[in-house]
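>> received
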Amino acid sequence: MGGRGKLLLSMLCLLAAAVQGEDPYLYYTWNVTYGTIAPLGVPQQGILINGQFPGPEINSTSNNNVVVNIFNNLDEPFLMTWHGIQHRKNSWQEGTPGTLCPIAPGTNYTYHFQVKDQIGSFFYYPSTGLQRAAGGFGGLRIFSRLLIPVPYADPEDEYWVIMGDWYTKSHTSLQKLLDSGRSIGRPNGVLINGKTAKGDGSDQPLYTMIPGKTYKYRLCNVGLKDALNFRIQGHSLKLVETEGSHVVQNVYDSLDVHVGQCFTVLVTADKDPKDYYMVASTRFTKYDLSAKAIIHYTNSAAPASPELPPSPVGWAWSLNQFRSFRWNLTASAARPNPQGSYHYGQINITRTIKFANSVSRGQGLRYAINGVSHVDPETPLKLAEYYGVADKVFKYNTISDEPPVDLSSITKAPNVINATFRDFIEIIFENDGKTVQSYNLDGYSFFAVAMEPGKWSPVKRKNYNLLDAVSRHTVQVFPKSWSAIMLTFDNAGMWNLRSEHAENRYLGQQLYISVLSPQRSLRDEYNLPDTQLLCGIVKDLPKPPPYSS
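>> returned
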């Protein structure tokens, strides 16, 4: 559907909302199955949604209610998480093992969430085990409401670029490697929208552009471990949105997209009439893997050149690119008021938390944050908390706000910390390792205010961007470096902070942040849904009294 068609769709949704007096509903029914796929030429078991790999896109507009009925036809439990969706007051729908019981084989569960006050490019993926390594992921876009101006002209059309590294081993084989204390090792290739061009003349174009027209490309890295550099032969990329925020519209030859990150760019078809390759290639690795896909001009007179544009070298380039990203202070996002009307740099910090990642190979491979390697209990953390039996499932604040001096020893336990409702908190991620890290926080966007080599100390605050840092949900941390984020914990619920690297996350590099409303009020958090799946020790307990209005 082109830009004008999507505009018409948004108008119809708006009219429906006016008639119903409620934000529009979007309904999806998804059948999750196994299927044989061969994206790198090797037949393997994939996870399909309605027979598709990657899965179908979710097309929504700010404030829409999204209802997704998922039928699990796998032979294993399944959960879906909605990466970057904030689920205001509604961590019940987050779709991680800490908030929701898995959907058992042969059963279904209906997710119901609102994309409240959000716009931009996001994605969804399976959060159980290593199922993301088999597929089950897809794009989730949120358009601005018609009444809210967008700071660029309506594009001719828009296209998804769902990219990521890829393994030809099945997700169960990869999981067995990790369970046996070994790493999953290097991937076998990179995919763009579930495939890569062969370059032998047999490839069909992925997308077509009309000369002189401008197109929107939504880029997301859904991979398991590697940052990717994205570029298009001969074309520049005008960055317009990052993970739900309009940004200053700088122009780039290429973009580093770390695992879990999304960007939206504008590309104008103003080059010679021929075909061109888009390229996604691994960064910061000893190996060089890439995927490519063809963009076809409608008046093309020649095939794409086999000479691909080179990838940048080293991570200093990537660090400088991060520093060039700026929040567009005058643009409105999901609300009428400009983004810059929120002066985050003038809010007093009430708490500083420093997270340091570590790895241990003493008794099998484990990853940790502040010395604790997270383990998912049988009873989801949020359910245990809601039913008043948290003390039987986990302990709060097993870690402190400062990492231990000695990070060589690791404790395996559910890792849950408390955050006081509406506190403005500074979080420092320290990475003393040799590989780039990537962290995502569910339920929120945060201001990525600084990123530097070396160790963090309070004096480093003088280098913070306290004016126009981008509000986003995923941030990278370079080797022997730190990154700083700031946010107000104003969304009550149980929220997952995790490494976006699948091996690290699966083996413990994650935690949950419990944000409790002291009022137990519906103003701050929704009640347990009547349809919520129950498991573990709460399965047969009487339902607690609901929150009051």
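>> The chain is about 10% helix and 35% strand.
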